[in-house]
Design brief:
single chain, 267 residues, alpha/beta, 4-stranded mixed sheet, 8 strands, globular
């Protein structure tokens, strides 16, 4: 993810990097060196950038990814990698981000159709290829990122969330899929909200159902993610983060891989 994951926040990060061209001030400290060091230790990895930014902002987004430099060295640049953007316009993206809160559908669909399926098809049928053999981890800043990653088979303990204070959390494995938990929570919200709307209508109260539903969804989603937080790190600079991630990737690499090693893992 880019906004809130490479940048420090969604809205301000997008505005600063696309309009004001202020890059370093709005990027999380150490993000460039972290991913560069990760690639140095795991040369079979490829970095993939997946954002909800509309396609019309592709050139400005690529410029940000290419120009961002931290610590004044070439080793502190973001690794090169393919960039995937939303095909809708800005209004469509904002509605999905702020109202329906279903951006995970776009992200999971993009990862599956444009990344997983081509690799599986290239490996051939009957090879045992799966999304888990292609996508080995993901970084994001929202629950929709987490749900999208899990929907395409990324192990939950290889999904990392970062907040505005640069704190990073890794999720624990649980028996029940997070996406099922979220769907159940949203179903409960709709039931409770429908009952409340009936009461409000009977009493003649004017209500904004869309905004109220959105707020309720937000609260339940935050509650769901808190239940699944495992390890916590102080930021991209935290040596324990890199050590933990490399260890997980090395364990994954020891298993039989259905695809060529040079192309099996994409972040």
């Amino acid at each position: 993810d880019i906004d809130g994951t490479i940048t420090k926040s969604n809205a301000r990060g997008a505005l600063a990097t696309m309009v004001l061209e202020q890059y370093c001030d709005y990027a999380h400290d150490g993000v460039c060196s972290f991913f560069q060091e990760l690639l140095q230790q795991q040369d079979n990895l490829r970095i993939l950038y997946l954002t909800s930014r509309p396609l019309q902002y592709a050139q400005m987004t690529r410029r940000f990814l290419n120009i961002l430099v931290q610590d004044g060295t070439d080793n502190a640049r973001l690794p090169r990698g393919p960039l995937f953007l939303h095909s809708g316009n800005l209004a469509t993206v904002l509605f999905s981000e702020l109202i329906t809160k279903d951006m995970h559908l776009y992200k999971s669909d993009t990862l599956f159709r444009q990344v997983v399926l081509p690799f599986v098809a290239a490996a051939g049928t009957g090879s045992g290829s799966s999304s888990n053999s292609v996508l080995c981890g993901g970084f994001g800043n929202s629950l929709t990122d987490v749900v999208a990653y899990e929907m395409v088979g990324i192990p939950r303990d290889c999904i990392y969330m970062i907040d505005k204070k640069s704190r990073i959390t890794c999720l624990d494995k649980r028996d029940e899929a997070l996406v099922k938990t979220v769907q159940h929570d949203l179903h409960e919200v709709k039931i409770q909200q429908a009952l409340q709307d009936e009461v409000n209508d009977a009493n003649g109260h004017d209500s904004n159902k869309t905004m109220r539903n959105s707020a309720a969804q937000q609260r339940l989603r935050r509650s769901s993610i808190k239940k699944m937080i495992g390890s916590t790190y102080s930021g991209y600079h935290d040596p324990a983060l890199l050590k933990s991630l490399v260890s997980k990737l090395e364990m994954k690499a020891t298993r039989p891989a259905p695809l060529p090693r040079s192309n099996t893992c994409i972040f």
